[in-house]
Amino acid sequence: MNRAESDKKSVIAIDGPAAAGKSTVAAKVAGMLGATYINTGNMYRAITLAATTRGTPLESPSEKDVEDILRNTSLEYTSSGGSDKILLNGEDVTRKIRAPEVAASVSRIAAIPAVRKWLVDRQRDIASRARLAVMEGRDIGTVVFPDAKWKFFLTASPEVRARRRLEQSGETIEGSTVASVAREIAERDRMDMSRKVSPLTKAADAILVDSSEMTIDQVLDRIVGAVKGDIVPNDLLKKQSRTL
Fold this sequence. Notes:
Layout: H1 3-10, E1 11-15, H2 22-33, E2 36-39, H3 40-53, H4 63-71, E3 75-80, E4 83-88, E5 91-92, H5 100-110, H6 113-128, E6 133-137, H7 140-144, E7 150-155, H8 158-166, H9 178-194, E8 207-210, H10 216-230, H11 238-243
Parallel strand pairs: 1-6, 1-7, 2-6, 7-8
Antiparallel strand pairs: 3-4, 4-5
């Protein structure tokens, strides 16, 4: 089986902007389908954390500075039970990468070509070792696995995303409001969509899921229903399909 055929059978790509609920949805979809969950955003956050630890100027990080960091960085990603763990140079940083200062700078680090290449190689390797992978991010269906059989673009209005972000512990600074977080999210969207390398965009063949007025269960029904309906002819999820 060649790489393209393997990708089509083994990857569910869920892309979308910041605070759209990708992590929650992807983790639950993976749990429902018995798949490996891969949160690529956390991998970019880990490199951003490494940059802050090294004192790299995050307002205008240079590619050379970041390349030096990558040469001296080990990143391990594990997934179990619908949750992931990030080890950065042997340290569990799963909680540290959720800090507001990391969230505020990750788009700048993620825009550096060397970072994207370094992480895309690792993302493909993780997925290649999984029977089925649910991978979420911003360029999964367009760059990392453009031939993925199942592609979804999950979004919501800036205001809805701001409310959801405020509900996440540790994600915002003290005193944040829906309006201030919505502005931050809008700026994050602008940076992600305008970067030269792998910009945030909906793949032409991705299913759009606007969750602004949907419950989490409705979103899950939409995605899992599409996947299960699409795979009836093959036996990739035959066992799971009988029990879901």
